[in-house]
Automatic annotation (TrEMBL), chain A:
It holds the Pfam family Oscp1. This is Organic solute carrier partner 1. GO terms for cellular component: cytoplasm; plasma membrane. It comes from Amphiprion ocellaris (Clown anemonefish). It comes from the Eukaryota. Residues 259-279 are annotated as: Disordered. Residues 261-273 have a biased composition (Polar residues).
From TrEMBL, chain B:
It comes from the Eukaryota. WD repeats lie at residues 250-291. This is WD repeat-containing protein 54 beta-propeller domain-containing protein. GO terms for cellular component: centriole; ciliary basal body. The lineage of its organism: Eukaryota, Metazoa, Chordata, Craniata, Vertebrata. It comes from Amphiprion ocellaris. It holds the Pfam family WDR54. GO terms for biological process: cilium assembly.
């Protein structure tokens, strides 16, 4: 459908990923310098110039599997290590959060405001690092250039394309369940109350006009809900009040971040549950974006510490994402081995092994 | 006024697309066909009126060749012509026409799709049977393709391309097929809210253009010379088709309208939107004074659901069916609800309960 959907999908999912990682890094009291390095490395990779160029080209949305591969690579663009289960958890949380935001957007155009909320938060993460900051600013400009001229109908097409991508995903997220924005069956709550979208009137008025354009009668009807007038419009500029809270960091108050493992798979008997886990044998899933992502040079860390993110199963069978700092030489060696096309510090990696094989080797190490 | 009956299950949930419910009543066989689009598949259900028999079929979007990626379907709608009924399916790659039971594809028209994707999406959307022998289909460029349909067989031809809209076509509607003479018998709508009113013929004639206000008109109907249009702002407007005079304006919904339908014999209007609400209205036309009345009759809330299709199941509006994005329930995918109207004589047609 819309060929302009992928940048919004990637930036918003990336933003959610950063919120979750940031919360976990703080909750686990990871040393500030390590935490900052993880965040900076991921953000640098996300906003790499060549990567964004490819991202912003008109193209159809990637399949779920293909997009998952891109995020796997992104998550490994730092000293952080994830095992398969952790990555699954993280991805579930990211996708359900963005699905929620897309569904709850009052107008399709508000998806752009949601994207700016994510961008604003990312900018705040890197405000002390000018080099990355300029990459982020450049991305704002690209978003504004590409999206602000679009009509409401074109935004609705983007939204419909995103909703097809998210179709049939009903993973229950405990932060949503606690806040009562998601039901126990995984469906999101759509209130018939609150402010109407900008540009919409509160339902209830029928006006009849004469042939000459004068209003003849007006009557009210019961709208079955509890609506109030629209709020002011959010800002579509680089700086400004976005008004909507969708896309802001819902993890900023310290809360455990969990997904419910039980229940969802039982319901999938009738649905074909599409696994988003990448298939190491499927080289064709390594689409161009994934290749670009995987090829990005990682700055060789000063020490050999890495940060590993994994799931610890507990007796309640809730998955909890935990971050541990371990000395993991082997992981670093593998990451460092990847041929860099995009060298941040000017170092050239030695060797010319096939990039595809390197990426597969990296996936095998997961 | 309406009560909810049990739902009919379909194999997968409805996608968030405008007008995502097709209904065809086959009175001689006492059954009704329903179509619901899910991504690249059309789910077809044939339901017997006694509620005892259901059969299912799935139609896939056609790919011009195996190497291309899956084409998403934008709309599936029944076209009832005097001589035959066809099911038309529009996608990113082209237009497929089937016999109304979905058994045989009788025609395929490929859209000009560029090799590498362009900024402007390419797809077909907006389907209507017109007069005795035409089927019109809209395209994302704003063009309207007019197909000439013989009374039987597959010798369907592209008769004309109407280029009046500059924005993507969203929906179109007609009235007076075959029987009566009408001044205008087709209205087409686009993403900027512009409406074009046409008279069919060997060469279609543009009778009027009603400008929009930069707000998409997602669903449109034509009844007794009146255009009924639903917009992304949640408003419904009624215009006199040929003159463009605005008869009525209704602040109908709190979110984007996805579907409108009219029961032509009774003047009942059905509207459904992303706000979870289905509303039933009554339209009265008084030709002597050239005036229109709009009365609100009923609300139905489909909890926590963004509705994407709503249609009456019969010409009087005794029953209507609804589809919603991503609908599920604890027992499995839920299709929609049938709601019979209990009239004063207690007569109702509704589909009973049924499971796969």
């Amino acid at each position: 459908m819309s060929s302009r959907t992928l940048p919004l999908l990637f930036i918003n999912l990336g933003g959610e990923m950063l919120y979750i990682l940031d919360q976990r890094l703080r909750a686990q009291n990871i040393p500030a310098d390590k935490a900052k390095k993880v965040m900076n490395d991921i953000i640098t990779t996300m906003f790499n110039k060549k990567f964004l160029e490819e991202l912003f080209k008109p193209q159809e949305l990637y399949s779920k599997k293909a997009l998952r591969t891109v995020f796997d690579r992104l998550a490994h663009a730092s000293i952080m290590r994830l095992n398969q289960a952790s990555m699954d958890k993280l991805y579930d949380l990211m996708t359900m959060a963005f699905k929620y935001q897309v569904l709850l957007c009052p107008r399709p155009k508000d998806i752009l405001l949601v994207s700016f909320n994510h961008m604003d938060a990312i900018k705040d993460f890197v405000k002390d690092t000018p080099s990355i900051l300029s990459q982020v600013d450049e991305t704002y400009r690209q978003l504004i250039e590409m999206y602000t001229p679009l009509s409401s109908g074109e935004f609705q097409l983007i939204r419909q394309t995103l909703l097809i991508f998210f179709q049939d995903m009903h993973i229950r997220v405990s932060i949503f369940l606690k806040d009562k924005v998601q039901n126990s069956n995984g469906r999101f709550v759509l209130p018939t109350s609150g402010s109407v979208p900008h540009g919409t009137q509160v339902p209830g008025l029928i006006r009849i006009f004469s042939c000459t354009g004068e209003e003849l009668t007006r009557q009210q009807f019961n709208n079955g809900g509890n609506y109030n007038a629209a709020l002011r419009e959010g800002s579509f500029e680089i700086f400004g009040d976005r008004v909507t809270k969708l896309g802001t960091n819902m993890y900023s108050v310290s809360r455990p971040v969990e997904t419910h493992m039980s229940g969802t798979s039982k319901n999938s008997a009738q649905h074909t549950k599409v696994s988003a886990a990448p298939n190491p044998l499927a080289k064709e899933e390594l689409n161009l974006l994934a290749r670009l992502m995987g090829g990005l040079e990682v700055e060789k860390p000063g020490n050999t510490d890495s940060v590993s993110l994994h799931v610890i199963p507990d007796e309640l069978s809730y998955g909890v994402i935990n971050i541990q700092a371990t000395k993991d030489q082997q992981a670093n060696a593998e990451l460092a081995k990847i041929m860099g096309e995009f060298t941040e510090s000017g170092d050239q990696s030695p060797g010319a092994s096939s990039k595809g094989d390197d990426l597969l080797a990296m996936m095998d190490g997961l | 006024m309406y009560h909810k009956e049990k739902s009919i299950q379909i194999k997968n949930s409805a996608s968030a697309l405008y007008n995502n419910l097709g209904v065809l009543r086959i009175a001689p066989r006492r059954l009704t066909y329903f179509t619901v689009v899910h991504a690249n598949v059309v789910n077809m259900i044939s339901a017997s009126w006694d509620g005892l028999n259901y059969s299912h079929r799935q139609l896939q979007s056609k790919e011009p060749n195996v190497a291309t990626s899956t084409s998403l379907i934008m709309q599936a709608a029944f076209c009832a012509l005097p001589s035959r009924d066809l099911l038309v399916v529009t996608s990113q790659k082209g237009i497929q026409m089937y016999e109304s039971d979905g058994s045989i594809m009788v025609y395929w028209h490929a859209l000009d799709t560029p090799e590498t994707p362009t900024e402007q999406a390419v797809f077909a959307r907006g389907i209507s049977a017109v007069w005795e022998n035409y089927i019109c289909v809209g395209v994302s460029s704003g063009a309207i393709l007019v197909f000439d349909v013989p009374s039987k067989g597959s010798n369907i031809t592209l008769s004309e391309v109407l280029e009046e809209h500059k924005e993507s076509i969203t929906d179109m509607a007609s009235e007076c097929s075959g029987s009566q003479e009408c001044i205008a018998n087709l209205v087409t709508a686009d993403d900027e809210g512009n409406l074009c009113v046409w008279k069919s013929g060997e060469e279609f004639q543009l009778l009027n253009k009603i400008p929009g206000f930069d707000m998409s008109c997602s669903s449109v109907k034509l009844w007794k010379g009146t255009v009924v249009a639903g917009y992304g702002t949640g408003q419904i407007r009624l215009y006199e088709a040929v003159t463009g005079i605005l008869h009525a304006e209704v602040n109908a919904h709190a979110r984007w309208i996805y579907s409108l339908d009219i029961a032509p014999f009774s003047g009942l209007l059905l509207s459904a939107a992303e706000d979870s609400l289905v509303r039933v209205w009554h339209l009265t036309m008084t030709p002597e004074t050239n005036s229109v009345e709009v009365a609100h009759l009923h609300n139905e809330c489909v909890t926590d659901t963004q509705i994407c299709g709503a249609k009456f199941c019969d010409g009087d509006g005794y029953a209507f069916a609804v589809t919603g994005y991503d609908l599920t329930d604890p027992l499995g995918p839920v299709g929609w609800e049938m709601e019979p109207l209990l009239t004063s004589c207690g007569y109702s047609i509704g589909l009973g309960s049924g499971t796969l």
